[in-house]
Structure formats: structure tokens, C-alpha cells
Amino acid sequence: MNVWEIILGIVMILVSLVLIGIILLQQGHRAGVNGAISGAADTFLSKNKARTVNAKLARLTKYGVIVFFVLVLVAGIISLNK
Predict the structure, then answer these.
(1) Which domain holds residue 63?
(2) How many domains does one find in the chain?
(3) What is the predicted pLDDT for the residue at 22?
(4) Rounded to the nearest 10 degrees, how much is the dihedral formed by the CA atoms of 39, 43, 49, 53?
């Protein structure tokens, strides 16, 4: 193993741990009677939906997954060139 493979492996582990933390911080979507009643209120209050903590965590999750996917592709390319 060369130095770049070790660094890439450490970065992949760190990104995966951050992703796990971000996903665990997100609130789950609850269905049922409570969800049916609050459906009308959601349409009225959804104009600020992009600024909520959940929306920011969802955005961070998307970017984190993209970074992790690129890291995995780079690791695959490095391993194929050996």
C-alpha cells in the first residue's frame, strides 16, 4: 500500500462516520392520524421549509453521499492501476 491509498482510506472512514452522524440526527417521517391532520398546515408553513435544520441536514447528506461516491470511485481506479 502506498501513502495515497492509506490517506484515501482514512478520509473514506471519516466521511462515512460523518454521514452516519448526519443521518442519525435527521427526524423520521411519521405517518398516521397526526400526519393526516397536519397535512394542511404543512402547505401553509412549507414556505420556510428550506431553512429548517432537517432540510440542511438532508442537503448535507446529499453532498456527503456524492463525496463518498467519488472517493470510492477514486479508490477503485487506484486499485485497478496496480
Answers:
(1) 3-26+33-80
(2) 1
(3) 95
(4) -20
